[in-house]
Design goal:
single chain, 596 residues, DNA Primase, Chain A, DNA primase DNAg catalytic core, N-terminal domain, Dna Topoisomerase Vi A Subunit, Chain: A, domain 2, 5 domains, five-stranded antiparallel beta sheet, five-stranded mixed beta sheet, 10% strand, globular
Length: 596
Amino acid sequence: MFYPEEIVEEVRGKNDIVEVVSGYVKLQKKGGSFWGLCPFHNEKSPSFSVSADRQMYHCFGCGAGGNVFTFLMNYENFSFPEAVRALADRAGVRLPQAEYSEEARRKAGKKARLLEVNKEAAKFFYYQLRSPHGEIGMRYLRGRELSEETIHRFGLGYAGKNGAALVEYLRGRGFEDALIKEAGLAGFSERRGLSSQFWNRVMFPIQDINHRVIGFGGRVMGDGEPKYLNSPETPVFDKRRNLYGLNFARTARSGNMILCEGYMDVIAMHQAGFTQAVASLGTAFTLEQAALLHRYTENVLLAYDSDGAGVKATLRSIGILRAAGLTGKVIDMRPHKDPDEFMKNLGREEFVRRMEKAENSFFFEIRVLESGFDQKDPEGRTRFHREIARKLCEFTEDVERENYLQAVADRYHIGYDNLRKLVVAYASQTGLARPVERPRTGRAVRSSPEESGKKAQRLLITWIADEPGIYARIQSYISPEDFTEALYRKVAERLFADLERGNYSPAGIVSMFEDEEEQRQAAELFHTKLPRLDSLQEREKAFHDILYAVRKNSYEYYINQTKLEEKDGLEQIKREIDGKRALEELAKTHISLDVG
C-alpha cells in the first residue's frame, strides 16, 4: 500500500534509529556516532555506524546503509510498506486504512481464512503429537535425535490413525467443508466422505517468510507410500515460490544459505546451529526459489545427498543458481548420504570444515564430467577437453570466462593456448561469444570519466550534508540539474529545497524511495568518504575542485546529449558558450569555508 509522505515522515520521526537498531545490534557511542558489528556481514572490528543526528546508519565495510525503514527492510527482509507498518505499531502511529474493491476484499478475506484453517490444523497436529495417539510419531522424532526445543521451534506434529479426526476438529472450530478442501487439508470420496489425506504421518508445517502456515509435509510412519506427502497447491501455497525453513534462515546473517533436499536435513542443520539451511518443497529446485534466495544472499552452499540422484539434483541446481546470478558451491557429504546423517556421525565442527572447503560449482561440474570419460584413452581425454571447452562457452562475461579458462588449464594440465583454441573453435561453431584476448600489459584499468563524474557528485552531496551552511555560498553555482545521475538529481532536488527552507533531514530524503536498492544508494550519498585535510586552505581547494568537477561533468554531459538529440545548431552553440563562461567564472571564484 502507498502511504502519504507526511505519514511516512511521522512514523520515521517517532522511531529513533539508535533505539531501533539497539534492539538488534550492540552499539557503543564513540564521538558523535554509535558503533557496532555490522549485522549484514561477518566482521570482527566494528565498522557499522549509526548517526543520531542524521537518523541514518552506514557500514564502512559492506556499504549497507539507510534510515530506520531501510534497516528493518534489510534485517527483517520486510517490504517498505511492511517496515512502515511495523514501526507505526511500535510508535503508536495510526495508519490510514487501504481502500479495496469488492473483489479485492473477497480475495483478501479468502486468503485470511485459508491461513486461519492452516494455523488451526497445525495446532491439531502439534497437540496430537503430544497425546497418546502421537506416541509413534514422538518415538520417530526422538530416534532422529531431535530435541524438544527443535520439535517446538518447527511446530512438528502428528496426524492420527485416520483422516476423519482432522476434519471433525476443523468443523468444530467453525470451518466449512469447502474451505477445508480448498486449503488442501482434505478430499471427498463416496466411501469416506470428507477425509484428510494426512494420517499416520509426522507432520511438518510449511511457513512463509512471515511465519504463517501455508501448507504441510507429512512423513509416513512405517512402510507406507508415498514416504513424503505434501499439500497440493492452494491460493496461499505455491511450491515453486517458497522454501522450507526460510522463515528462520532469512535472519541468519551468515553470509550464505545452505540448500538441502529435505525437511529433516533442514531441521538437523538448524539444531546444529546452521540456521541458514533451507530446502525445496517436494519438488526439484526452481528458478523462482533461486530468485527468492537472491533476496537474502549472493552465496549458496549445496548440501544435497551424495548418491547418484543427489549428484544429478546438484548439477541441475547449479545451473539454476547461475541463471539467477547466484554463486554456488558444493559441500562434500561423503562418506555420508545427507546433512542429517553427516551431523549425527561427524558433527558440527567437521561440517564447518567441509563448508570452508566447499567446491566451486563449475569445478564440481567438470569433476563429474571427467568421470564419464576414460582418461587413459587419448580419444576419451580429447572428448573430455572438448566438453570442458563447451562448458566454458556458457560463461557470458568475458572476464569470468577468461579466469575459469586459465584455472581449468592449470588444474587439468591442459596447455592454456590449446584449451583456448578449443573454446574459440567451439564458440565459432555454435555462435557463442569467444573468449577475450589476454591483456598484453599489467597496467591497471583507470577509472572512467563517467565514474569520476559520479564520484564528484557523491562527494559534493556528502560535503553539503556535513556542512549545510556551505550551500548558501554555492547555490548560485550549482543546481539539481548538474547531477547527471537520476537518483543523485532527485536527492539533490530535495536536499537543496530543504536547505532553502532551513530544515533538512537526510533520513527523510532516503524515505522518498521505496525500492531497497535505491534507498541504499541514496544513503550512500550522505556517507561518501571525504578527503581528510588539516588546513583551511587545503579544504577550500579540495571543495572547489569537487564543485568544479561536478559543473564540468554537467557541462560535458548536456553538450553530448544535445549532439545526440541533433538539436538546433544555434541552441547548441549558445549552450556551449554559456557553459564555458560559467566554468571559467567558477574556476576563478574563491569559495570560503571559514565558518567564522
